[in-house]
Amino acid sequence: MATAKNKQYANKSRNNQHHNKTAVTPQAAQTEQRSTLREEWQKSITWWPYFITWALIMLFCTAIYGDVFTRAQQEAFVSDSPLSMQYLLNKDYGQLYWIGRFIMLVWKTTLTGSLFMATILTLAAFALDRALRIPQFLRGISALLSWGLLLWMVFRGYSLFYKNEPSAIVLYPLFLMAGSLLLWGITALVGKFAKKDNNGVEKTEKAWSKWNVIPFILPLLFFGALTTTTLLRNDNEILTARMQNRLFTFDINEIGALVDDAQLAEQPSRSVAAYHAIGLIHTNQMLEGLFDIEYAYPEMKLDKKDGFEEYGVFQSDANLFSGLLNSAYRTSMDHNVMNGATAYNLKRMAICAILNNEPALAEKYLTIIDQMPFEGKFVEKFRAMNADRTLVEQDPLFAQILKLVPREKRFEQNYRQPVFMGYNIGVLEGNNETLPISIAACLYSKDFSTLIERAQALKASRGGFLPNNVLEALAIRGMSKPEVYKAFPELNPDNQTMGNNATSTLYTFLKDIQAYYESKYSPNEWQDSLKAGIKGGVPAEVAKTLKEEWLGHYFYYYYCENLVKKEEKSDQNNAGVN
Amino acid sequence: MKIHLLFAAALITLFTACGVNVERPTDFTNVDEAVNIYPDYRNITIPCNIAPLNVQVKSDAKAYFASIACGNQEITAGAGEDGKLFFDEAAWKELLTASKGKQLKVNIYAETEGGWVKHPEYTIDVAQEEIDPYLTYRLIEPSYELYRQLGIYQRNVTNFDEKVVYENNPEYNSEDNHCINCHNFQNYSTDNMLFHVRAGHGGTVFIQNGKARKLNMKSDSILSSTVYPTWHREKPWVVFSSNRTGQAFHMIHGQKIEVIDYGSDLVFFDVEKETLTNILKTDDVMETFPCWAPDGSKVYYCAAQTPYLKGLDTKAASDAILPRYDSIRYNLMSIPFDAQTKTFGTPEVEVDCNAMGKSAAVPKVSPDGRFVLFTMADYGQFHIWHHSADLYVKDLQSGEVRPLDKANSFAADSYHSWSSNGRWLVVASRREDGSYSRPYIAYFDKDGKDHKAFLLPQKDPEFNLLRMKSYNVPEFSKNAITVSSETLKEVIYDDKKANTVKYSNKIK
User: Lowest mean pLDDT: which of A77-91, A167-181, A530-544, B393-407?
Assistant: First the structure.
């Protein structure tokens, strides 16, 4: 275009020369060219900042935070039945939230949701720029509010939707857009009657020429700041949402990917660790991979509501996927009672009922879920399973869950809480599939009281082999209970025929700890310092030096991680009846 | 907000209740397959003043047509693909009035791919007797330990109106969170009634002749708080059970929850004098679920022998009873009462359920005093959680004990009550899905025979499928509750005004 225009101008110039017989110098031609280019540039600057903003918000909402928003959509149960929406309608602004939840359906997929957010937020920025008469060299700066809104959503963490109204995700951008448009309308009307300050415009245009890159830099800066903050602050939230989304495909291949997801966490939260464990269970790697992630849980930032905050995020899923169907249903019902219906929760209740062979109850939940737009696929799939039990038994995921269903006829109150841990620690009778999970629970809680018997049973079921983590736990146990060596002679430190064994590896690990104290303290002090220092576990600064080499070993977990004392909960329930 | 909710509901109702204009098919094929309708209103007996029995046909047809006729009178309704048939209320009322003591014939047609088909006709008997117009119940999720929003509601069974009597906090609030339960009327009238408030702002609310007050029922002289109530028919006397209750959650049992008492006694309360007196206070027998005989000569109740609880403190009792949960069996008992001397006599066994390997709960005496209706299950007392729970009746004239085979189902049939004329029963039943209790009504004719139970009709037949709350403690009354929920809220929240009851060793 520039070349054509150049030619045009050049022709014009030649024409002028011909008609006026006036010479046009090359410099003048160049100046005129630059002026034309500048005009074009001026025109494009009007919309480029908005396009870039739009594109970057799209990118943020798809690649960075899309999992969280799509997860939030599953908390926004909506139907056109006032009966089903009664919980919401009883709230202040309930009708507004009702509308918001319908709009929230855009987040059924990341693409449609991102399109929505990007368009609304960019439109808001455009309108606000117009309303505030932002000069051209700062066009796009009003997007600061749009980016600020996204930043607020990031700072809300999981509480953006968990036990809070999820439609705020779409309503607040809409309010921003509506407010900006309104302001633009008002200022446009006012502007019609106001005197135009031409001098000001002239000054602005002169200034513009110096700062013409700002509209292009601003969106990138905002995006950069938001993305950096999000990834540094909320990686656990993103991973938890992603893992929950995967889980509720009820596809065993997706569930296997939970293990990889957890590895991405810088410092996994309790929720990430729980979903990691679910992934390990259903890929038969529980004992092999449980300690591959770090166990130093950061606090998940959640609003204080009813005392079941972070556990509430994953407890029901942990119960369900470890075969504790009644417990999964119970905690799901509790969530339903306290927070109203959510699609995520209703789906879990339907699955529990199907697996528990309660077809009428499952049909009730499927009917309710079916009221919600775009849930037809889920309903169709599970209605078929509900009608034909063989489909359940043939499904690889559900078949595995059914194998984990308890055999002991006991009460939840007979086990420590949370029950998915307490049951697996306390269980005395179960299928072979339960055994590795039970041992893993014992290792996780550092409860070795029944470890020897369980390990013996596992060894017999696995042709004489035990995973390294189990051997390492037994080696630790052997230090205080030498009878371990009778049951597992391969661990006996005096047994030279079996080469390096877990016990000798344990000594190496302990020597590394010792080496730290020897290097830090004098020869007279290091032994006392070591004894005092590792009382209750290895101090964090020591653990840091050991992490690179020893993370993944049970030794590292036992001595350095999860050092918080767990209170014994009463095994009798004293709860009253409603 | 409530007005907006009603408006929205009205709009939806209007659009859904209008039904579909479908002409009566003239060209159809008769099929043998019985029509699949929800609720199942086939071959039942209904009161002559019940609300319309709107149904949903569950099949894949394009349209439906239904006619209900008795003699020369007929009403019709049409439906689209959703199969929902709405009968005009006025026309229905007229039909029922004309059909008292007679039979309705119901015919349903369906437009399939191959044309219209007509399903086999079924009948509905219309009893001469009316049913009490009001049914009061609590709505709460079939939950475990936690609760949030719940309330007591009163439904007019002659139409579809459901009124809020009282609702607690819509949002969880640790200071104000409270539960309400155990509403009970004196002689089917809401003039005198009570209900309990638990947790925040706890106490018992008494309504007498339009005035509400809250009483603090705690006393060190009774076992625990006052729980299951029964009003004397005429006198201002209430017998309560006083229970220590816990619950445990099954890991794999289909029944999910076991609610167990680890101590219960019976106490007498004089509403006017505000005095409590122990009737039966024993730590090796658990007495619960009292029910006055209509003539006030007896109190029926349930009792289980628990010698292993003797001398144990609360914690020890709770620990001792849980492993025995499936061997605790309650007999149906009665204890005579002398209104002159205001003394209770010696308890008698009415039904030795233990010997039958069963356990009784919730005895309710018919208004004419002839029958005792109660629930029996394999063990325990909180039978709504026991699939084996069924309704039984003892004929106090003949001594015969028999199950209500027509009214019972395969699921838990538990809390029940009589209508004031003794012709209708309502029972909280879990036959729909095993988890959510729904009120089922059954005719109990003058010969003492029960009839097939039917679900309380709703405007939208799918209503009960979508409702995620259970109906608890359905109780009939002849009149509506007149005290407003705002007044009740004031009374409940005003803890300072609540009198504390006194204890008396003897009924004065």
Answer: A530-544
Three-state secondary structure readout of B409-426: CCCCEEEEEECCCCCEEE
B256 contact residues in A (CB cutoff 8 A) = 326, 329-330
Pick the CATH number of B134-496 from 3.30.160.100, 2.120.10.30, 3.40.640.10, 2.60.120.1440: 2.120.10.30
The CATH topology of domain B2-126 is Immunoglobulin-like (2.60.40)
| Closest alpha carbon to B233 in B279, B291, B302, B301 | B291
Inter-chain residue contact B251 with A412, CB threshold 8 Å? yes
| Residue of B60, B144, B178 to mutate, testing the A interface (most A Cβ within 10 Å of its Cβ) | B144
The predicted complex's ipTM stands at: 0.93
- Say whether B5 and A327 touch across the interface (CB within 8 A): no
Would you put residue B123 in left (φ > 0), alpha (ψ -120 to 50) or beta? beta
Q: Domain segments of chain A: what residues?
A: 2-45, 50-193+222-233, 513-560
A59-93 pLDDT, tens digit each: 999 999 999 999 999 999 999 998 889 889 988 89
The tokens describing A301, both together, are 């930032």
Total Cβ atoms within 10 A of residue A221: 12
**pLDDT tens figures, A248-288:** 999 999 999 999 999 999 999 999 999 999 999 999 999 99
Using a CB–CB cutoff of 8 Å, tell me whether A84 touches chain B: yes
Whether residues A361 and B433 touch (CB distance < 8 A) is answered with yes
Whether the CB of B82 is below 8 Å from some CB of chain A: the reply is no
As to burial, measured by CB atoms within 10 angstroms (0-12 exposed, 13-18 middle, 19+ buried), residue B38 is middle
- B256: nearest CB among A326, A338, A577: A326
